[in-house]
Amino acid sequence: MALALADNPNPTSIRDAFGEEPGKPQEASKENDVEKFRKMVREFLDTSTSQMARQKSQTCRDYYDGKQWTLEEQSKLKQRGQPPIVFNRIKRKVDSVLGVERRQRTDPKAFGRTPDREQSAEIATQALRFVSDQTRLNNSFSACFEAGMVEGVGAAEVIVRQNDDGDYDIEVNAFSWDVFIYDVRSRRHDFDDARYKGTLQWMDTEDAANLIEAYLPADKAKPKVDELKRDASGKERAFIQDDTTKDKPNQAGWIDSRNGRVQVCQIYYKKGREWWFGV
């Protein structure tokens, strides 16, 4: 199954950003859209450089958590009757830097370009601070900063949805490093030159069903949700097979029928000059 949502980063109107009906994604009409998503995921997971980066990220997290002895070293220590003692200077140093980030947080503030714009800037400041408080933006910033300090990469998404009242709700989600996927050809530190980026993670079946229902009208979502719940064969090969993704059902399939979990990919990809979203 696949969904697609136009998400223009520089829209001239709400219609330009979300298509004919604001906030209502369009169902993918071509099967090759699904294969396009699969190709992006395969490219990321089959590339040695990205896998080496993920393995190094896992090692860095282990060092932060105090797991600094290899199995071979632990075996030798056990033969000698010595305990694997760790003086974790890495965690202490990282935590001190994280503390500095938390202490030096600042509230967003808008400034007027000219003196007669000061009142408008104050209104903008209050709006920014309201959104920051509602989305707990500082928590997301700190989560991304910690991931950048330890694993070397942090990611978050900002979602703007139109509610039933016609207003717009803003949501900020920080991602764990081990579910984040990206264009392996990207060279910029902020992935600004990436042609796709997203997440690949295991979800409970009910959570995956809720995700489908959030992006499709009820009449189109129901058959896909029913298909998801029926399909428990798990015969299709899962893309993620490395040690950095064990959340996580230990089987080669998209579906873990025993625990009621499915592997879900959410991906933003560039199509012409627009950014689209697929599940």
The portion of residues assigned to helices is: 40-55%
Q: Strand share of the residues? A: 15-25%
State the oligomer: single chain
SSE-based structural type: alpha+beta
Number of strands: 9
Structure described in brief:
The chain contains 9 helices and 9 strands. The protein has about 280 residues and is α+β, with helices and mostly antiparallel strands.
Q: Can you walk through the features of this model?
A:
The chain contains nine helices and nine strands. By secondary structure, it is of the alpha+beta class. The strands form two sheets. Strands 1, 2, 5, 6, 7, 8 and 9 form a seven-stranded antiparallel β-sheet that branches. A two-stranded antiparallel sheet has the order 3-4. The longest helix is centred in the middle third of the chain and has 18 residues, at 118-135. It is globular, with a radius of gyration of 22 Å. 16% of the residues are buried.
Q: What are the main properties of this structure?
A:
279 residues; single chain; seven-stranded antiparallel β-sheet; alpha+beta
Q: How would the blueprint of this fold be written?
A:
Layout: E1 3-6, H1 14-18, E2 26-27, H2 31-46, H3 48-64, H4 71-80, H5 89-103, H6 118-135, H7 137-150, E3 155-162, E4 168-175, E5 180-182, E6 196-204, H8 205-215, H9 218-230, E7 255-256, E8 261-271, E9 274-278
Antiparallel strand pairs: 1-2, 1-9, 3-4, 5-6, 6-8, 7-8, 8-9
Helix pairs in contact: 5-7, 8-9
